[in-house]
Fold this sequence. Notes:
Layout: H1 9-19, H2 24-37, H3 40-47, H4 55-72
Helix pairs in contact: 1-2, 2-3, 2-4
Amino acid sequence: PSILAGISPRAALGALAELLTDDPNRRLDAIETLAAIGTHECLVLIDSHREDESEPVRSAANRILSAQAAGRA
């Protein structure tokens, strides 16, 4: 999924959103790629996984959103 970070955010969002429903490793990859893109829409998708069933996915989502919030402070 990191290749998708090089294309327009609008084009990547659909493909990444589909990966967010897949296995935990793909969800984790998708969240990291969404973070690299960094648009508001990406952050909303990441936020939806703050309570994911997978601990690594939850941890990544919370880390990314916390860092984003700290950057705005």
